[in-house]
């Protein structure tokens, strides 16, 4: 796998599971949001100039297409303990399964000028 997925510490017992994000990311979190009620819809379709992101499917499954201009891969997130790192150079789209919720943690506040909407010209192939 070319794109890094962190395995977040999870503690489970008869009462349920608790997954910890504290100290796990290689950047400070400046923005947190989640996407839900997007059954079967595809979101994203951009990369960034500076912003780094982390994606967690906190409920259901999310298919994430990643392309860094050299390699491309589709990654399926389906455990709340899996956290996909998205670097600024990574063109990404994600499709949410029915009832899925994806948590997004970003290194910078929202700034439309940070977005690059054009995909890489020559799509790579693995």
Characterization of the model:
InterPro entries: QdtA_cupin_dom (IPR008894), RmlC-like_jellyroll (IPR014710), RmlC_Cupin_sf (IPR011051). Residues 4-118 form the Sugar 3,4-ketoisomerase QdtA cupin domain. It comes from Hyphomicrobium album. This is Sugar 3,4-ketoisomerase QdtA cupin domain-containing protein. This protein has 126 residues and is mainly beta. Helix content is 0%, strand content 48%. It contains no helices and twelve strands. The protein has strands spanning 5-7, 10-13, 16-19, 31-35, 42-48, 53-59, 62-67, 72-77, 82-86, 91-96, 101-106, 115-116. A five-stranded antiparallel beta sheet has the order 1-9-6-11-4, with no helix packed on it. The chain is globular. The N and C termini lie close together (11 Å). The model has no long low-confidence stretch (mean pLDDT 95).
């Amino acid at each position: 796998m070319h794109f890094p997925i962190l395995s977040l510490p999870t503690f489970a017992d008869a009462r349920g599971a608790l997954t910890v994000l504290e100290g796990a990311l290689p950047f400070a979190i400046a923005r947190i949001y989640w996407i839900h009620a997007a059954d079967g819809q595809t979101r994203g379709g951009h990369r960034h100039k500076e912003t780094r992101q982390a994606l967690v499917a906190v409920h259901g499954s999310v298919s994430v297409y990643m392309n860094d201009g050299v390699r491309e891969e589709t990654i399926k997130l389906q455990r709340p303990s899996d956290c996909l790192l998205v670097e600024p150079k990574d063109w990404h789209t994600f499709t949410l399964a029915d009832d899925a919720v994806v948590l997004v943690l970003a290194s910078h506040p929202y700034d439309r000028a940070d977005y690059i909407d054009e995909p890489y010209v020559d799509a790579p192939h693995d």
